[in-house]
Design a protein that fits this description.
Two copies of one chain form a homodimer. Chain A folds into two domains: 64 residues, Arc Repressor Mutant, subunit A, CATH 1.10.10.10; 169 residues, Beta-Lactamase (2-Layer Sandwich). Chain A has ten helices and eight strands. In chain A, the strands form two sheets. The first copy, chain A, has a six-stranded antiparallel β-sheet with strand order 5-4-3-8-7-6, with helices on both faces. Chain A binds a DNA duplex through helix 3.
Chain lengths: 246, 246
DNA sequence: AACGAGCGTTGCACATAGTGCAATCACACA
DNA sequence: TGTGTGATTGCACTATGTGCAACGCTCGTT
């Protein structure tokens, strides 16, 4: 592992919280200003950061450009987009698209319930592995050894009264999810939110992504959320078909 | 400057073109596999990349998360969004939002003419400084010394017959733009595209962004594009007001 | 089932590249 | 004009990154 690269990335991450001066950045790493300067010069050279007129560092356009490319590489995101928009329009509820990535589940798209405008706020963030419908869907599709390994690494922090509290119970739930083809989150992550989720499959038959619908209970109770299942499953079926699934 | 960081960023950029094996990445830098491995381990550790089951590297969710933050930090982007959507809907034409950043002009949002769906394809890319309306708008607002310095650094590559070909002519054009409050691109970047652009100002009065409308000449001739000016200026006025301009 | 090719990973010795210090420069403010 | 803050540069030192070679793992072949 490269100390230098790790430091540079930590500085980048720090800039995610807002602009910083060179001294502040050096302070974050606990290194001399010179060291921070050299790291930032490289980042600046590649447009990952830029400096304003006051010598403050900001996240730069190179980052946007790369992130745009990363998004486009997730072909599934582009394929899913029209279907997700339609589902969002038909149900009026929040729709998420998530993917499994190196032991974690990450949101790669979101359609909000109100404005039908894409929100960036949570894209890129991790989904909690033991409390969300998308995570259950994706974990349930993993080969058993990997599934066990990932589950073993989970910190079963209780979010609500309904949160699954241990690996055995989660593994059992994942079996159920795998068998019936969809997952729910019955106030397991937030007390006032229920979700249903289902997998999107490609030509290989593997679940390459998961779609979920999230509904606050003041809008509709859990039972009504389950009634959205046919629409959800039709959506994931259509996306899977576009992605080449048989 | 840090060689190590530069190498790591070059590998990241390389992944922007698609997945790569460790050997391919080592080949890009012309270094030993070991070296590339260490760099990638650091990137992987911070979720900037991840490896799939075939040990191929991909751009990772850490990048998404950071880019999302970067976007949100550009408050102007959020403020402008509804106005740009409205302009896009009213005119049916492609609308760009761009900002000045360290000697360059960068697209930070785009509304496409056809589907009214945000396209990521160009966000993060640089605008050509001597051929685009957004660049003229932003350069025209710079203090004269910096404006001269930036203009002096431009490579005046001719894109079309109408492209401005030298620093003197561009500086003169920028004076005009500054005086009248808007800029055009009369087939200067692409032979078949005309644009108009105008600045967005914040409370300080500085131009913090620029909005442009781009129209292919098969849709409407240059003269009709100029007729969009009132709508454009009303849009930038409204955004500026929301951003705190007097 | 055994074999071998291809690719990723690890241990180690070397020197390159990154680091901290101290001096210098640039700028703002009084 | 002077003072203070913060960025930048030159230099000496060694920690850190590097390449090599050996090892291990997986997959495809006979």
């Amino acid at each position: 592992m490269s100390q230098t690269v790790t430091r540079a990335l930590r500085l980048l991450t720090e800039l995610g919280d807002g602009e910083r001066s060179l001294e502040q950045l050096a302070g974050v790493l606990g290194v001399h200003k010179t060291t921070a300067l050299r790291l930032m010069q490289s980042l600046e050279d590649e447009r990952f950061v830029y400096r304003d007129a006051d010598y403050r560092y900001h996240l730069g356009a190179g980052l946007f450009a790369l992130a745009s490319l990363a998004m486009e590489q997730r072909g599934i995101r582009r394929i899913a987009a029209p279907h997700l928009a339609a589902l969002n329009a038909a149900t009026g509820q929040t729709v998420h698209l998530a993917a499994y990535e190196g032991g974690e589940v990450v949101y790669i798209d979101k359609y909000d319930s109100r404005h039908k405008v894409r929100m960036y706020s949570r894209i890129g963030l991790h989904a909690s592995l033991h409390t969300t419908a998308v995570a259950k869907v994706l974990l349930a599709d993993l080969p058993l050894p990997e599934r066990r390994r990932v589950v073993a690494g989970i910190d079963f922090a209780p979010h609500t009264q309904n949160t699954i509290t241990g690996p055995q119970r989660l593994l059992a739930e994942l079996e159920t999810v795998a068998a019936r083809g969809w997952a729910d989150d019955h106030a397991e992550h937030e007390t006032f939110i229920n979700c249903v989720g289902a997998p999107v499959r490609d030509a290989s038959g593997r679940a390459v992504a998961a779609v979920s619908i999230s509904v606050p209970d003041i809008v509709a109770p859990y039972e009504q959320v389950l009634e959205l299942l046919p629409q959800l499953l039709e959506t994931t079926r259509a996306i899977s078909a576009d992605a080449g699934a048989p």
